[in-house]
Amino acid sequence: MSIAEPLHAPSPAFAPPDPALSHTVLGTGIGVPPTVVGNDALTAGLDTNDAWIRSRTGIRERRFLEPERTTSDLCVEAAQQALRSSGLTPADLDAVVVATMTPDQPIPSTALLVMDAIGAHRALPLDLNQGACAGGVLALHTGASLLRSPEIRHVLVIGADVMSRITDPADRTTRVFFGDAAGAVVLGRSDVPGYGILAWDFETALDHSVEIRAGGSALPASGDTVDRGEHYLRMDGKAVWKRATDMLPRSIRSAVARAGVDLDDVRHFVLHQANRNIVEHVLDTLGAERHRACVTVDWLGNTSAASVFTVLHEVVMAKKIQRDDVFVVSGIGAGFICGSLVIRYG
Fold first, then answer.
1. Domain end call among 189, 204, 228
2. Is residue 142 part of a domain?
3. Last-in-domain residue among 129, 156, 189
4. Burial, 158: exposed, middle or buried (Cβ in 10 Å; 0-12, 13-18, 19+)?
5. Residue 17: is its pLDDT beyond 80?
6. Pairing with 129, which of 72, 264, 306, 343 sits 20 to 30 Å away (CA)?
7. How many domains are there within the chain?
8. Same domain, yes or no, for 233 and 177?
9. Is 338 a catalytic residue?
10. Do 268 and 313 touch, CB atoms closer than 8 A?
11. Rounded to an integer, what is the distance from CA 188 to the centroid of its chain?
12. Helix axes 71-86, 110-118, angle to 10 degrees
């Protein structure tokens, strides 16, 4: 499907959450590699420069994971920090949800690897593997949905991607945009009604302008696919801009309306960090002041499924979100999949 032929599949009829099944954010954490890769480190091998990268993306640096470490290592780092801030232990977890498109390997489960590493041996492992940059929003929605089950009281939700492993070092279109990170949130049931996800909206538009062609059943891995670089991420930047600036504001407005609140009531916008220009364009379209959205893309780059978690961790740690505040989490990823959650913080 071309970008000129949009297919919008909005969320089904929305049913407000049962106030008796209230939930809340108990803790947050991030896992960030120590290796800082500034723009100058990339421009030597690419047809670009620091001024171009900053003006087009707002990125001054990003983090690349050390060769001997994996996605699950970053997940563990973020998970342990989130657990410490929640006051819970791994034994308290009933489920672990991991969203990533860069798993350690196709099997076994990345969620299972993380559970084993942190000692959450009785938790249910769930992996969301193809949501790409929308993975964090999908994972949060999934984690909150699990809490509707009476047997589940605490869920660890993680978004993580090691984008440096799937971007072509010779491709300016992708290499300068992405970085590596993990973010985690511990969600728990609340005895006080009215907290957690108040409303949500998801919209899809099938489009192959962001894809990894090889490695699946349509084009299995082979020497030829490796030689052609078809295991690397390919992206049409203009298509991403068009989709993101169209779908994100519409999804946010829809979710906010379903929650029965006004945009002016939203304390903070936790937006996917595709690039700074997209974040600012979305806020301007909504008529929201730019200071209502924290930015991490400047020092982390686009960290895909980890993106919204890095922002949420920053605003929670900086106390920019307080009890009873309403905030929006919104992101868009390859596919395209776009989603927004309206959350009351408890």
1. 189
2. yes
3. 189
4. buried
5. no
6. 343
7. 2
8. no
9. no
10. no
11. 20
12. 50
The pLDDT value given to residue 48:
87
Amino acid at 231: H
Q: Catalytic annotation on 133? A: yes
Marked catalytic residue, from 23, 141, 154, 272: 272
Asked if residue 13 is part of any domain, the answer here is no
List the catalytic residue out of 133, 275, 294, 338: 133
Measure the CA–CA gap between 25 and 61, rounded to whole angstroms: 29
Q: Residues of 3-35 as b/e, b for ≥16 C-beta within 10 angstroms? A: eeeeeeeebeeeeebeeebbbbbbbbbbbbbee
Determine whether 272 is an active site residue: yes
Whether the predicted pLDDT of 80 surpasses 70: yes
Q: How many CB atoms lie within 10 A of CB 76?
A: 22
Among candidate residues 39, 294, 302, 313, the one labeled active-site is 302
SS percent in the chain: helix, strand, coil, step 5? 35, 25, 40
- Give domain status of residue 2, yes or no: no
Phi, psi angles (nearest 5°) of residue 291: -70, -10
**Nearest to residue 57, comparing CAs of 319, 329, 322, 295?**
295
Q: Does residue 20 surpass a pLDDT of 70? A: no
CA separation, residue 171 to residues 3, 221, 303 (Å):
22, 21, 17
Nearest CA to 333 out of 238, 157, 204, 232 is that of 204
pLDDT band at 44, cuts 50/70/90? confident
194-229 pLDDT per residue, tens: 999 999 999 999 999 999 999 999 999 999 999 999
Task: Give the model's pLDDT for residue 3.
Answer: 37
Task: Give yes or no: residues 182 and 211 share one domain.
Answer: no
- pTM for this entry: 0.94
What are the residue ranges of helices labelled H in the chain?
39-43, 50-57, 71-86, 110-118, 135-146, 172-175, 223-227, 237-259, 276-286, 297-300, 307-317
Distances (CA, A) of 317 to 30, 81, 326: 11, 12, 16
